[in-house]
Each structure stands twice: as structure tokens, then as C-alpha cells.
Automatic annotation (TrEMBL):
Pfam families: TPP_enzyme_N (PF02776). GO terms for cellular component: acetolactate synthase complex. Signal peptide: none annotated. GO terms for molecular function: acetolactate synthase activity; flavin adenine dinucleotide binding; magnesium ion binding; thiamine pyrophosphate binding. InterPro entries: DHS-like_NAD/FAD-binding_dom, THDP-binding, Thiamin_PyroP_enz_TPP-bd_dom, TPP_enz. It comes from the Bacteria. Belongs to the TPP enzyme family. Coiled coil: none annotated. Residues 23-121 form the Thiamine pyrophosphate enzyme N-terminal TPP-binding domain. It comes from Arthrobacter crystallopoietes BAB-32. GO terms for biological process: isoleucine biosynthetic process; L-valine biosynthetic process. This is Thiamine pyrophosphate binding domain-containing protein.
Amino acid sequence: MTAVADRPANAAASLATEAIATVPQAVARVVRERATVLFGLMGNGNAHLISELTSTGFPFVTVRHEAGAVAAADAYFRASGQPATATVTYGAGFTNTLTALSEAAIARIPLILIVGDAPSSGPRFFDVDQVGMAAAAGVETVRLDACDPAAQVHDAYDRAAAESRPIVVAIPYDLVEVPVQAATQPAGAPQLTMPAPATALSAAELEPLIAALRGAERPLIIAGRGVVDSA
């Protein structure tokens, strides 16, 4: 099963001609191009992004807890094969996602989690090391800057799809109202491909497995996602 991130034929032209005022607006534009729905919980760090998307009618599914945002995006990819995107705020909003984010990393789910983060000038007294926490869960963080945030987000989507893994995209809080310095004309969206089913075994290859099962007193079969995907 494959899924391709839809992008209008004139997307590149629109990126070159349409003015982008702020970093969250640049991020919102990429989300509109690369995703079909956003799961999340609004907070101070992602309010501008959510407002920009919902004001244009982009589907936003709100949840009751930040872990649910990542879990819902994870489930959305598993059920549909479509790019998964979630958003939460900074600090405790981000730390609440870590269990679901760790599961997505272990299961190799191509997922983008857009979060608020400490200002680029340095952390405030209530900020936490979100980059370090994500890294401990095996997840990379891309901290945006004002030079070309659209290119950074497109690249995150590309690598999440190509490498089948979640990536955190962090918007520093002091950039939420900062004008971007360049609008990017992105490359074509990559094809998102589910793992290919394994080649079926021949009768001769199956025979020793069947014999082992028949001879076992307490057979145990451990089957993971690869078995489901190959069914």
C-alpha cells in the first residue's frame, strides 16, 4: 500500500508569489500541502499555528490530552497510510507526549509532531530540555529559524517518510510573530511506501517449520506488524 502526499500542481508557483508573514504561517502552509488532518491540543506555543490552519478550514481534531494527539496521529497512519501530523505546546504539553512518541519511534511511524519550544535566545525558568527528552526517546528534533522554515518542515516530512520514523518540529516561542526571510520552492513530495510483504515461502521451505510446530509441546508464535503488513 502506498500513499503520496498530495500537492497542487501550482504549489511551487504559489510559494514563490504568495507572501508569508510569520513563521507559524509558513509552517501552516506546509502542513496544508503535506497532510490531510491535524491532531492536537492547543496551548500558548502552538496557538498561532492552529489558528492559521483552522481559519482556512483545515481539518483539526482536538484531543483531551497531549499523548492522545500523538497516539491519534499514529493510529491515523496505521489505518490510512497517509502522512500523520500532531501538534502540542511547549513544556509539560510536550513532555505529556513522550510515551506515545516513544511508541511511534519504536514502531517506525512516519509522523511529524509540531511543538512550541523555548525561545531561540535561551530557555526561560519554566522551559525544559525538549530536544534532549525527544532524543532519549530516539526522536530527532528540528528547531526552526526565521530564514527558511518552510524548507525545514518540508525536509522533516521528506525524511520522516523516507526513513519511516517520527520527527519533532519545534517553533521557538520568540519566532511566533517573526516574519520569515525567504519562501521556499520545495522539491516534489516523496512517495510514502508501506513495508513490502515478504516473499512467500515455498513448500520445501515451509516443511521444516511445519514439522517443528507439529513436534512442539507448547508452540509459541510471536507475530508483529510485519506479519500484519504482509497479510
